[in-house]
Amino acid sequence: MLVPVELQGTQARVLHQVNKYASERVAARRAAVAKSLREVAKVVQDVLKEVEVQEPRVISSLAEVNGRFEGFTVLSPTEFEAVLYLNQMGEFNFVDDGSIPGSAVLKLSDGRKRSMSLWVEFITASGYLSARKMRSRLHTLVAQSVDKCTYRDAVRMVGDTSEVRLRVRDRYVVQITPAFKCSGVWPRSAAHWPSPHAPWPPPSLVAEVKTEGFDLLSKEPPAAGGRAAGGLESDAWALSFSDAENRLLYGAGRRRALAILKTLRDRHLDLPGEPVPAYAVKTLLLYECEKHPREGEWEEGVLGDRLVGVLLQLITCLQCRRCPHYFLPSINLLRGASPPALEAASKQAWRLTRELLTNPKSLEKL
């Protein structure tokens, strides 16, 4: 296809700007995060040594592989999550009927006394494996380990939450989350994905994603209408699709877009009240992939258009005060932010988008 000379020039300038931003701003963010994560990982791994000795149902899943720390998720440059997988001993029924949005309950199904005895202290009167009780057990073990570990002067527990959170060197917060890996199955609440006849993702990739499965995380459920969650809701396990999302964001173009968007978010949209979580940006990028399914739409020369597309989606979500989860659209990723915080973020996102649309050299100063 013939491309007009003036358009070729525009694409070349955009490509230069994107490459320069990636080599400078994105690379600097990546290096800073890697340095912080290395510091945090040493402390967390030391704390968990004793936990793993005391609790055989915990599988050590935090490791450094080729310079990357597996088992850690970067929530922000100063916030991290360490997912601690549990040994899935015994047979469980996975109950995902939509009664607790974004969550499911686990019930021991094999009826054997030995299986029941493996988890007896975490079983509720109704026979469910309680995420809350599991988290409480880990909370106790981590608190004891913090007092004994090599870095005890540099780490302390964060109070006022049932989550297991550590503050490291007064600069970083790490959440340690117990989890089960569910491979080879797919939750009923996400059965609608992908939409029928959707051009993206391709069927082969959908099959890979569904085989990869998902995780069940023990997390404090969000308060409903200002009241604390209780009963079955507090015993339920949160659905997580992190591995599926990473598999969908394949290819250099999509990955580069995510890295640039994370950098723009940290530099310009990390506002009071956290109205723009990094996970929302990742989610909107997945929706952008659906809108632009062809590989040619993710080449370097048009990556600037994809970035603007995600930011325009973000502005709409902030103004509507709703960003639907990619796999579970009934879940609003902005539900925890206040209306004033969302309004401020919307204005800032629009300023950022307008700069990208009107100034060919905007990335030099963003």
**How many strand segments?**
11
> What share of the residues lie within helices?
40-55%
Task: Find the structural class using helix and strand composition.
Answer: alpha+beta
SSE order in H/E notation?
HEEEEEEHHEEEHEHEHHHHH
Q: What is the CA–CA distance across the termini?
A: 33 Å
Number of helices: 10
Strand content: 15-25%
Low-confidence stretches: 1-9, 224-228
Q: pLDDT average, as an integer?
A: 87
Any key phrases for this structure?
366 residues; alpha+beta; nine-stranded mixed β-sheet; 45% helix; globular
Question: Strands, helices and their partners?
Answer:
Blueprint: H1 5-54, E1 63-65, E2 68-70, E3 72-76, E4 79-85, E5 92-95, E6 103-108, H2 113-119, H3 131-148, E7 155-157, E8 164-168, E9 172-182, H4 203-212, E10 214-217, H5 232-235, E11 237-240, H6 242-248, H7 252-268, H8 278-291, H9 303-320, H10 339-358
Parallel strand pairs: 4-9
Antiparallel strand pairs: 1-2, 3-4, 5-6, 6-11, 7-8, 8-9, 9-10, 10-11
Polypeptide structure, described:
- There is one protein chain.
- The protein is α+β, with helices and mostly antiparallel strands.
- The protein is 45% helix and 15% strand.
- The protein contains 10 helices and 11 strands.
- Strands 3, 4, 5, 6, 7, 8, 9, 10 and 11 form a 9-stranded mixed β-sheet that branches.
- A hairpin with a 2-residue loop joins β1 and β2 (68-70).
- α1 (5-54) packs across α7 and α8 (278-291) packs across α9.
- The longest helix has 50 residues, at 5-54.
- The protein starts with a helix and ends in an 8-residue tail after the last helix.
- Residues 1-9 and 224-228 have low confidence and may be disordered.
